[in-house]
Design brief:
Layout lengths: L2 H8 E2 L1 H4 L8 E3 L8 H8 L8 E5 L7 H4 L7 E5 L4 H8 L4 E2 L7 H7 L3 E8 L7 E3 L4 H9 L1 E8 L13 E3 L5 E3 L16 H10 L8 E4 L3 H12 L6 E7 L1 H8 L15 E6 L3 H7 L5 E3 L2 H4 L2 H5 L4 E6 L2 E3 L4 E2 L2 E2 L2 E2 L6 H10 L4 E5 L3 E3 L5 E3 L1 E2 L16 E4 L2 E4 L5 H10 L3 H13 L10
Parallel strand pairs: 1-10, 2-3, 2-6, 3-4, 4-5, 6-8, 8-10, 11-12, 11-15, 12-13, 13-14, 15-20, 16-23, 20-24
Antiparallel strand pairs: 7-9, 16-17, 18-19, 21-22, 24-25
């Protein structure tokens, strides 16, 4: 049987394909652009004949009909490895539970501990060799599919075809069923317009970046504006080794700054695990030989990251307490996002020769009542600790950049208060005194 004959033998309608799902099954939706909307809609249509079907997803932009069609969660129970803005709203409605993780370990979790009865994933059209490309979700998708009893692929004609280091494709022989259908435009994920605070934070980081540095940029206004500043700077020959590839890297490439010329790993190629952004990004990714998509077991491995000279990691966070603990995923008990690869890159960049890891946040936030609060707190009160104090490196606000590595508790308190909003510094000093982490010689 040739590839096209095998393809035709496995072709099903979405409704036919999801008949394999049984009550009690674990179903995997993989991650972001790997979400298969036609299969999700067909599964949701089976709601009344199924019970206790558990679904795992990750940074999916929605809508997820299987979650939304069952507000009592009697039929479908949705869970996410990392909440997108859409999944956060599901969680607020009680329709999504978070799964704690460290990103480079996600596939090993599946390999050693988790059950996948059915994996549903979006792929590019099959090539002449019988391969479907995993596109923007190479980071974990192949590893998840390998653990599934049944694999259903949904062909999305709009996905870019990426080149890979390894595990960027799945062969038709590894697929049980194939679904086709029309798809709308790919999600357009734009960072919000950078604020003046974002610009000030970026300005504090820029002097630490040198020619030939390899960058990991998170998502959000501040990394976006930093990418813009780097594109306009005198820096040259920057590299890319990142969990998530966004439009910021396209800006750097267009400005001639992103060459990957001096990387020891994949020289001349930017390395990533996932990607989402705008059509500008998707067009840049498509069959681009200057890029290599690889599994996160490799991309986010701290020992791999640490082997890259001058590795610079830049991520956002939500709050920091005076001990140096960092919360990047919750506001009190409310789940906002997830751990993602923050710990992976903190550990890796900290051991890189010339490496640096930055966690960035505005010094304050304003609540719905218009009251301003400090994001640097005396101690957390319900917030989930994403990065332990023992592994935190640079903390940056619009008031400055401080390095906490190797610092005692009183030094950390002094440094963090120095970059807090001036309106809260006296209160934080009093709290530090009460907590026994302030000494008389500390600066006021």
């Amino acid at each position: 049987m040739n590839h096209m004959e095998e393809y035709r033998s496995k072709l099903r309608t979405p409704e036919e394909a999801v008949r394999v799902v049984k009550s009690g099954d674990w179903v995997d939706y993989t991650v972001s652009l790997g979400f298969a909307p036609l299969l999700d809609a067909a599964l949701a249509a089976r709601r009344d004949e199924l019970h206790d079907v558990k679904i795992r997803g990750n940074l999916i932009f929605g809508p997820i009909l299987a979650a939304e069609c069952d507000p009592k969660r009697e039929h479908f129970v949705y869970n996410s490895w990392h909440c997108s803005g859409y999944e956060r709203k599901l969680a607020d409605r009680g329709l999504c539970n978070y799964i704690p993780m460290v990103f480079h370990n996600v596939v090993p979790y599946y390999r050693h501990f988790l059950k996948v009865n059915v994996a549903m994933l979006s792929v590019t059209p099959m090539d002449k060799h019988g391969y479907f490309n995993l596109s923007c979700v190479t980071g974990t998708t192949k590893g998840i599919a390998e653990q599934a009893d049944i694999v259903i692929v949904e062909v999305n004609e709009r996905l870019p075809r990426v080149y890979g280091g390894f595990d960027e494709c799945i062969h038709i022989s590894e697929v049980d069923y194939i679904v086709e259908g029309e798809h709308g435009p790919l999600p357009q994920v734009r960072a919000g317009a950078p604020s003046e605070t974002d610009r000030k934070i970026a300005e504090h980081i820029l002097p630490y970046i040198q020619d030939g540095a390899t960058l990991q940029l998170g998502i959000g206004g501040m990394p976006t504006v930093l990418g813009q500043m780097l594109a306009q700077s005198d820096l040259k020959d920057l590299g890319m080794h990142t969990e998530l590839c966004t439009d910021a890297y396209v800006d750097l490439y267009d400005a001639g700054k992103l060459t990957n010329r001096y990387k020891k790993l994949f020289p001349g190629k930017g390395v990533a695990g996932f990607a989402f952004g705008t059509d500008k990004l998707y067009e840049w990714l498509d069959e681009n030989p200057g890029l290599a998509f690889c599994p996160l077991e490799y991309v986010n491995d701290p020992s791999v990251i640490g082997s890259i000279d001058n590795m610079v990691s830049i991520n956002g966070c939500i709050g920091v307490d005076l001990y140096g603990q960092v919360s990047s995923e919750s506001s009190g008990f409310r789940q906002i996002s997830g751990t993602g690869g923050q710990l992976d890159f903190l550990n890796g960049a900290s051991t890189s020769k010339g490496g640096k890891a930055f966690l960035c946040l505005p010094s304050t936030f304003t609540d719905k009542q218009g009251e301003m609060h400090s994001n640097i707190k005396s101690v957390f009160n319900g917030e989930i600790v994403t990065s332990p104090r023992s592994q935190v490196y640079f903390i940056v606000t619009e008031y400055g950049c401080v390095n906490l590595e190797g610092r005692s508790t009183w030094e950390r308190a002094e440094l963090l208060i120095s970059i807090a909003h001036p309106a809260f510094r006296d209160d934080l000093i009093r709290a530090a005194e009460k907590q026994g982490i302030w000494i008389r010689s500390n600066k006021r």
